[in-house]
Amino acid sequence: MQKLSSTARPLLLAAALASSFLVAGTVFARDVVVRTETGNVKVTEFATGLDTPWSIAFLPDGRLLVTERPGRLRVVGTDGSLSEPIAGVPAVHARGQGGLLDVVLSPSYAEDGVIVFSYAEPTSRGGRTAVARARLDLERMELQDVRRIFAQNEDPSGNQHWGSRLVFAPDGTLFVTLGDRGGARDRAPALDSHIGKVVRIALDGSVPPDNPFIGRTGVLPEIWSYGHRNIQGAALHPETGELWTHEHGPQGGDELNRTRAGLNYGWPEVTYGREYVTGRKIGEGSSRADVEPPVLQWTPSIAPAGMAFYTGDVFPQWKGNVLVGALKYQLVARLVLDGNAVRHEERMLTELGRRIRDVRQGPDGHVWLLDETEGRVLRLDPAQ
Q1: What is the pTM of this model?
Q2: Among all residues, which ones are annotated catalytic?
Q3: Nearest Cα to 259, choosing from 290, 286, 281, 227?
């Protein structure tokens, strides 16, 4: 495990294109240019007017799907225009950190138009993280044949820590990240609970026969890994196909993990984080023989959100890097890997002063961001 210095900072802001940049904390016009260690980067305001956007997915025709946490799914046109909300989205528990969350296209989307999305499903106690599949009809702008394929088996009260990233594995199975819901953190190590887990299911909701806990009495067979706090970033390593995730720590101790089958990631017994308010140590320490250590931990916490391995040609200097958005520190962290270790971190785009909720590489190799603060879709391009 590696901890990088919290003093790592990007270089200073370069001149904005056509003097369009205003100081951090104000809205900027369409394009700005910032300096990074690998050259200038242009930040383009591609779409505006979203309400707490959470996730981006790329449609084959160049348009985007974007979720809004209050419960709306919209199409963003190639010109940046926003559609009306798509009909047919189930009711969501849009309180606190809950609502409509991740969205991905199924591997068979080109044939059947199926998408998958996660959301905070309302229950009598409040809500639980759930996943549904549906057919997206772009002519009628509606979801059809909506079917829930997974829901947490517990619905503790409270409105925090829903997790909720979705990643399709190369074999077509689906990883779902599930938070500890805040007050239920002691259930994160329990193998009869979905609290604080990553689960792996098939697109019809069934359990793959090679999951790590198949056949174990008293253990939920869909569990892939356990001991997580609140995973809000997940992506497959482009070379190994391995699932990597990052999760929020409490006061410190955000983690980047190789999230492997059957392993315990420690929360809340083993963590670098400390209690809010009191600052007291949580659990028994930061390491234990039966707990998988993080690849990287951030203290103080950056509040990571969204994650992508960069494999495109638009930014050749970033190939193989991990890009991580951050809410609290309002940045994009570029992590340079050496095998499975992080050897360098650059903190980019701090000048924008915006909470970066999602980070994606588009099919064209551009990097796309969701600015939660101002409700915008941003695109990154090299600048001359």
Answers
A1: 0.93
A2: 161
A3: 227
